[in-house]
Amino acid sequence: MTPHTRPHTLPITTALFGLGVLLILFLVSKGTLWLLALLAILILASYTLRLRLPTIWLPSLLFGGILLGMAILSTPLDGPQSPAMIGTARATFLFGQAMAILMTLQFYRPTPSDPGRPKLFALLGGVFSLMASCNTFDEHLLRFLLPAILVVIGLALRNLRQRPSLQRLTTTLLFPALALALGTGWLGIKTVQSNRERLTEWGNRFMNERPQAELTGLSQQPTLGASFGARGSNARVLRLEGAPQIYHLRGAAYDTYDGSRWWLPIPARSFITLNPQLLSLPAPRGVMPNRITVTRLQSNDPLIFFPLETLSLELGDVEQMEWASNASGPVRVRANQPYIYFYQEAKEGFQGLMALPGLPTSEAQAKQLVLSEEVSAALSPLAQKITKDAKTPAEKVAAITSYLLENYTYSLNFRGGFIFAKDNPNVVRRFVDGKQMDMVIRFLLADPKQGAHCEYFASAAALLLRCVGVPTRYVTGYFAHEEEAPNTIIVRQRDAHAWCEAWVEGKGWLTVEATPPTGWPEQNKSPIEPWRKAWEWLEDHWQKTLSWLADREPAQLAMLLLGPFALIGLVVFWQRRGRKAAPSLLDFLLPPPDLAILAKRFEAVLVKTGTPLSPTEPWSERLTSLPEATQPTAKQFVTLYQQARFGGKSTERAALEATLQTLEGSLKKKP
Amino acid sequence: MTLREIMVGYPASKDIDLHPYYQGPAGKWVWRFYHFRFTRAGRWFLGLTASLFFIISIFWNLDTQTVALALYLAGLWVVSLLAFLPVPIRATMRHAERITAGETLQAEVTVENTSRWPLADLTVQGWGLPLRVDAEPEDGISLGLLRGYESQTIAFPLICRGRGAYILGGCRVLTDFPFGLLQAYRIQRTPTRLIVHPAFRPLTRFNLPSGRRFQPGGIAMASQVGDSFEYLGNREWRDGDNPRDIDWRATARLSGATSASLVVREWREEYFLRVGVVLDTHVPVRPPTSKRMFLRELSERLPGHSSPEKRQAALERAVSVCAAVSDSLARQDYIVDLFAAGPNLYHLMSGRSLAYREQILDILACVEGSPEEPLSRIAPRLHQELDRLTTVICIVLDWDEPRRQFVDELRQHGVGVKVLWISENEEAQPDEADLQVLTPQMLEKGSVDVL
């Protein structure tokens, strides 16, 4: 640090803003970030201390580096309020503290050349720090502090430019402006709060970053509507690594069908916590289990997805798994996204974890066979007709699947509100007598037949099979097909799918895919835009970096962050060293070191005789001040020295040394 | 030009028409919007607000407090949009018409609030200033608050860094009330002329060589009947004398003593000597881009090699020397014929009026480098005047064969020639008696008092 006669201090509004930001971050972190107290003291001390850091120089870098190291050490590995923060609380707090340090350093920057810069940097650093504080769901504290800090920001912004002292009238005008800004902000917040749902949906649709659950069949309760009309977004949901062979990733299963809906809705189910030990089945003979790593990417859906044939489940990053006890799944988890879990798949047809219990109980079987009177009456004749040649449940399943695949086409829009006249397809009449009719009945009995989407096919297959006594359940999930890299499959929202599972005696639960192949997600895919791929690449690498950083110990992080400082220091040191090593003009002008020693000794002799020797005074003019007896020796020394220095004679150094010793000796003897 | 210079290094007070990169109307509009509407803090704060909104759009979770912070910041911006309202201000700028390079022009700006509402945080900035005229401070001068119909006059210093004839665009009155993010402004277009004379160090003595021809070759000092000539003495009448010159009193005094011959007063007519000053303005054209890099390297490796930049600097020194010489000659009652070419051919024969020195400096203020050899353009005009010139002072930027030839031709006409070589480097050596080399160091030190 360099002392200054007058401390260059930032405006009081900037200091107030800085202190306010530190206070907010301290409170949001529940008082865990003790370094902020030190920073606050440093800011206050800057008004009395007369020490300022040199601009971009080693002490400045070291000071910043030390503070940064302290920030790393002071940031708790897992803050107590981490569930309230978006992302890792540690990373957020670390960023906030780093910005607070940047802000504090500005108070110690001298500002002779650009007085505006430290003020500006302090303000920007402070706002970044504030952003870190605000990255939370907890509004109790910030609801009151944010308006106050906004007033200070407004005043601090004004002080970035040199102005004449504030006049009363200006103050009178300024405060309404601040109030107006506050009011506008508050109005904005209220608008967002009141339109939260709409804005979220709008954002989901346009940003493609969230699941459009209601449109993809992965709703809390599948409902068959008259039209579908939209596909899921391109947002990524899962990444499967390990060459999966089974593509139907099961999410939730539904047993009861009524009123064009599948029941129970997921929120209505009761969940029990699963013992991780029970999530593994013995591998069947001759089956080599295939272990798949699943990364759950963006989604708020708490369900996890894996095939029916899953042999075992491993928790991975998942804190807790829960099973819906009164239905055939799903499995719900508690974890912060993105998270990883693992499953092992067996061969197709294997009765995995989700097929348990193997034989449906009579109660469950009753649920999986139940049909409403309307559906039973309408569909049973058709089901009987389709399966008249089928003897076994497996044959019935095959017959019904074939019937649906052969007779119906896939369409995103099911025009279930109308039905065409039998004799003239161009004439439409309202279906039946305007009475509400089940959507599956409309789908199956329409004449001519209408195209529909996977939910209809899955529901139709499930209900037709029930009509002929085969227990079924409706399943929603994803159809994994898009290869991202070798042995890696990426699953997007648009890959959401519905199918049904049927209980076949002797085989167990089987996946029944009744949707025509043209309707499978792999057939409907449109190419992913290059910008989206680039964005996903960035997302992945950012996530990898964050995960890597989160795994580091504080000491490692400190080393990592201090490394650049140390490197800069080394470079600076090396440059300075190189600069010193380079010969300068002065080096050529100065006498050689051995001669310089002799010259110093001789000058010491001259100085002993009286007044100090002036730098411009030649030796020969001072020889008279020596005792008369020693003057010839001194003169001889000067002559010899001139010869050695400028005459290029190096052999006379010994003589020079001897003469000087004689002179010194004679001067010592004299007293 | 670096990216920083392109984006923010060009001050808002300058004339955007002079910027090499913002040539099209869209580019100029963007530059004006960026510099005139946003303050420095506003530009940074806009980036910060945008990044905040970007983060929100990535997470798109409306339950976080980041949204609240962003909306409060948006509130600041919304109120700052007041800047797009018109500013009821009238401003007038007055300043001297001439100044010397390096001096500060004290302009005077009167700002009047034409509405009844007070206007806070007013600042006066330059607008449309030439590149070599800088407002001081660049950010403008703060006026503070101006009440309704109130006016205020402030000193507005302009540093004139280089000679030239300029048009000052006017001034811009702005206010960044309330938060210093956006600026409301009014441009007062009052184009005024400013001539910045070259700075020079007056010479204490200037030795002028004389030619072999009959002297004087100038103009009679008396320009009309009644002007006084230098009185030499009285003598007796000779036939042919002007009767108006008879000194009757002296005739009367002497009439008793000698024969009664008339006594006349004898006068000697005085002449101004005419001296030609030829200014070499040759600055080579910048070569095409493909060659430029190579030549730049060459000029760095070979210190003696000429480059447009070095030559331009030498021209500026030559103009200063020319001004010093002209000033010295003016003080010694010479008539100066100034010949210079670039971009126009200038020939000024300065007369006896008091503005004579001003006229020369005005021309020197306007002289620019000529891509062609200017001496070939000057020579025909100079030869027309050569019979009436006693001496020619050649201020040259190089000493090559064409210039030697030019000077030799002048000598052959019998005029005295003095050559001042304003060299681009320190190594130049005179090879003739009448040739004097003025190196950059000599002129920068200000050690040239006698020529």
Précis, in short:
The complex is a heterodimer of chains A (671) and B (451). Chain A is an alpha+beta fold. In chain A, helix 1 (12-28) packs antiparallel against helix 6 and helix 12 (393-407) packs antiparallel against helix 14.
Primary descriptors:
heterodimer, A: 671 residues, alpha+beta, four-stranded antiparallel β-sheet, 22 helices, 14% strand, elongated, B: 451 residues, alpha/beta, seven-stranded mixed β-sheet, five-stranded mixed β-sheet, 31% helix, 28% strand
Give a count of the beta strands of chain A, DSSP E runs of length 2 or more: 19
Instruction: Give the beta-strand count of chain B.
Output: 18
Q: Radius of gyration of chain A in whole Å, from Cα?
A: 42 Å
User: How many DSSP H or I helices of chain B?
Assistant: 11
Approximately how much beta-strand content do the residues of chain A carry?
Answer: 5-15%
The computed structural class of chain A is alpha+beta
Biggest pleated-sheet summary of chain A: 6 strands, antiparallel
Mean pLDDT of chain A: 80
Largest interface by Cβ-Cβ < 8 Å:
A-B, 56 and 45 residues
SS strand fraction of chain B: 25-35%
Give the neighbour order of strands across the main sheet of chain A: 9-12-8-3-17-16
Main β sheet profile of chain B = 7 strands, mixed
Silhouette of chain B:
elongated
End-to-end Cα distance of chain A: 52 Å
Quaternary structure state of the chains depicted = heterodimer
Q: What proportion of the residues of chain A is helical, as a percent range?
A: 40-55%
Poorly predicted runs of chain B: 289-304
Average pLDDT for all residues of chain B = 80
Helix/strand order of chain B:
HHHHEEEEEEEEEEEHEEHHEEHHEHEEH
Query: First CA to last CA of chain B: what distance?
Result: 39 Å
